[in-house]
Amino acid sequence: MAAASFGAGGAGASSWTGAGAASQYRRAITCFNQALQLDSQFAEAYYNRGRASANLRRITDAVADLVKASELYLEQGNTTPIAQLKQDLEQLKPQK
Q1: Which residue in 5, 7, 54, 58 has its CB near the most CB atoms, within 10 A?
Q2: Distance between CA atoms of 34 and 46, rounded to whole angstroms?
Q3: What is the pLDDT of residues 73-82, one digit of tens each?
């Protein structure tokens, strides 16, 4: 795992450091879960849940969500986020 931290996106994300960060990422994941219950095709929710999972070192969950987001973005014809998704997935590869 690369040392780089993933931002959760949105306003105030840069202040998510220190002891409270894990709690905030867990709450964010709960919100993304709720959004996905309402719309299972919401690519951005998968993307951001994946980034929050990465920050919690839940690598398997993070990779699954980032791959799903990538698939949905492509299905929806939105290729803009794909380059960033590839970079995020690359950072999650184990270091050799």
Answers
A1: 54
A2: 11
A3: 999 999 999 9
